[in-house]
TrEMBL record:
GO molecular function, one term: phosphorelay sensor kinase activity
Taxonomic lineage from the root: Bacteria, Pseudomonadati, Pseudomonadota, Alphaproteobacteria, Rhodobacterales
Domain of life: Bacteria
EC number from the UniProt entry: 2.7.13.3
Keyword field: ATP-binding, Kinase, Membrane, Nucleotide-binding, Phosphoprotein, Transferase, Transmembrane, Transmembrane helix, Two-component regulatory system
UniProt keyword Ribonucleoprotein, yes or no: no
Protein's name in the database: histidine kinase
InterPro entries noted in UniProt: HATPase_C_sf, HATPase_dom, His_kinase_dom, HisK_dim/P_sf, Sig_transdc_His_kin-like_C
Amino acid sequence: MLNSLSGRFLILTTVFVMLAEVLIFVPSVARFREDYLLSRLERAQIASLALLAGDMIDESLEAELLRNAEVFNVVLRRDTVRQLVLSSAIPSPIHATYDLRDTGPIDLIGGAMMDLWSHEDQVIRVIGKPVREAGLLIEVTMATAPLRAAMIDYGLRILALSAVISVLTALLLFLAVRRFLVRPIKGVISAISSYAAAPEDARRIIDPSAGVTELRAAEVALRSMQTQLTGALRQKDRLAQLGSAVAKVSHDLRNVLTTTQLLADRIELSEDPAVRRMAPKLVASIGRAVNICEGTLAFGKAEEPPPALARIALAETVQEVFESEGLAPDAADIALLQDIPPGFTMRADREQLYRILSNLVRNARQAIAGAGGEKVIRIRAREDDSHWYVSVADTGPGLPEKAREHLFTPFQGGARKGGTGLGLAIAAELARGHGGALTLERTGPEGTTFELRLPKTVISLETSQE
């Protein structure tokens, strides 16, 4: 209970209210003391008027007047004459003098605290102004014991009232906190627990309903996070199912391609010159398809295999890509150009580099196939001291905004209708496997350019362990 938000709020409220009441208590007691002293001055003035009216009174009446006024003697100054009007024996010397005519709040509080904490019955002198201008001043001597008793009685009543007010205030605030804060927070906790039990269930996403602005903002942020997480989990589930299906298809397709590869080997024995000329390309394409199927099967168990790095001539790989993509029906009017320095070599996995460039060229071909104007796909290469750079540029219409937002995300970065975006995702993953990166350099009405950057430095095992 005490460790809960409402319990701690109850304790803090009670403490703060009591602190406020203490701050009120001190000046209240000082004010009560001032009123008490002024009332004694007023009583003494009334008693002195009885003597002034009768001029002479007996000792018993004088003692009764002083007893009713609760003072020992009364001094009244009228005009310039200071006159002892009523007097009696003073039990002890005068301890202190208090002039109420021009006393500030600090002096009143200090005098009240001194009288309140003093346990001795002392005699004090009190000076004030007579009521209704009945003289210049009136002065009395009195004991502090009755004053202290009256102050204690008043203080206890103030403290009791403060305690009641504190408890009622704390209770009301406690109920208000439970109603407007604790209950909505418990609702959020319940929603989080429910969502954690089945995050794929969109019905468990929180519906913001809090009336407190800050708490509602937290609910809105939580709903956004839950929505994104649910979408990510669904996509992950779809990818897992797709991976399982692709693995099964690849297994069967690999068997079919193996048989086709055996038949292609026999085609190479044909005497027809055209067949003999096309047979090596057919065999290479079938071999590459078999490798892709085997890689897909491996992908079902792990990620892309690490690249087998070797020095390769980039122009030869680019030419293979162009020959493969040039066979497509929509590539007849597309110019496939390469701008690669003679003898340009780079360290990469030949098959994976082919897949990267093939995906980029295929995407470019599909982008400009239905576009008007000049249709050109150009591959350029350059290098510096630390990297090799290969760019694939086209003259297509550019990528739409949605494709740019999720460019390398599977099933979200498709640039054309019906596209899955897998090509760019696979190319980016293969580039990362080389320690490099695939980036979008530019896109717009003038065309699109992707750049592949591969590092020249090879990190050895000894270097990585240092």
